[in-house]
């Protein structure tokens, strides 16, 4: 088996959600209300950690490290 | 790897040997606590260079699909899995989508996603993504900013706010954000299996040069000058995929294959492969 190097090809997952709670949707923050602890729990399941982050009024963007 | 969190959409893109699909259950749980339910799911990937190194549930596309079928809630009953072929050996595009009855047709008709996978990078270009021996005593952030600058990545979309990071001893990741649009680049520059990816979202109505797909794609590929690359476009409209060849052929890349398929909630996915024209 070829010596394994670092796998460059990525896996990509896109999930869409909907909510019928007007209060929640009214805030228009939705998933952005997830606290960092919850995000870290999800990233633990994926063996990743956040190394850098940036955000604007539309969304949050994180650079991850495996 | 990257994570993007919108109010009703999450995108996670990871390289290496992560168990990405294991994020679905905790995400559904946390979203439920916010009053949100999953309505559509899309999983895509190219062909791994080291498939035997992948952990379960990623040891094969068959195993991934079984895991997704088992994990995605039953109300997302419109499902499709497909391996889209190319003429480049062991380079296929793997797609799984699932959605509920009210999301079969993509809601944003004009929005597209472009996923570019580049291999056999130009060596001089790849070398720019190595830290100096000993790491150069710089943080990943500082070294990442320097790589963004010396490679011209910052010029792909000059209006984007960039968040970048360099890994020790080599490797680089960046996210660009501009309004509600993201772009992202990941580089593993090791010789023999050098790889870079570029991904961005846009609208078929973009017409200014910076946002326009043709200019963006051309600038991104010219950073790495790969010997081969694949481009997957996802859009409800068929206006996007012809622009890819229009962007790449003038910079010496010839289209070698094109496969298209329709998927619930994603619309049309077109997978094209290109190789550098022989000198």
Write up what this structure looks like.
The complex is a heterodimer of chains A (66) and B (279). Helix content of chain A is 24%, strand content 33%. Chain A is built from 2 helices and 3 strands; from the N terminus they run E-H-H-E-E. The longest helix of chain A is centred in the middle third of the chain and has 10 residues, at 36-45. In chain A, 38% of the residues are buried. Chain B is of the alpha+beta class. In chain B, the strands form 3 sheets. An 8-stranded antiparallel β-sheet of chain B has the order 7-8-9-10-6-11-13-12. A 3-stranded antiparallel β-sheet of chain B has the order 3-5-4. The longest helix of chain B has 12 residues, at 140-151. Chain B starts with a strand and ends with a strand. Strand 3 of chain A pairs antiparallel with strand 1 (2-5) of chain B.
Which descriptors would you attach to this protein?
heterodimer; A: 66 residues; alpha+beta; 2 helices; 33% strand; elongated; B: 279 residues; eight-stranded antiparallel sheet; three-stranded antiparallel sheet; 37% strand; globular
Q: Please report the total strand number of chain A as a whole number.
A: 3
Written as H for each helix and E for each strand, in order along the chain, the element string of chain B is EEHEHEEEHHEEEEHEHEE
**What is the C-alpha radius of gyration of chain A, as a whole number of Å?**
16 Å
Structural class of the helix and strand makeup of chain A? alpha+beta
SSE order of chain A, one letter for each helix or strand = EHHEE
Q: How would you describe the shape of chain A? A: elongated
Strand order of the largest sheet of chain A: 2-3
Query: What structural category do the secondary elements of chain B indicate?
Result: alpha+beta
Number of helices of chain B: 6
Low-confidence stretches of chain B: none
The main sheet of chain B comes to: 8 strands, antiparallel
The pair of chains with the biggest contact is: A-B, 53 and 86 residues
Strand content of chain A: 25-35%
Oligomer: heterodimer
Distance between the termini of chain A: 23 Å
- Major β-sheet strand ordering of chain B: 7-8-9-10-6-11-13-12
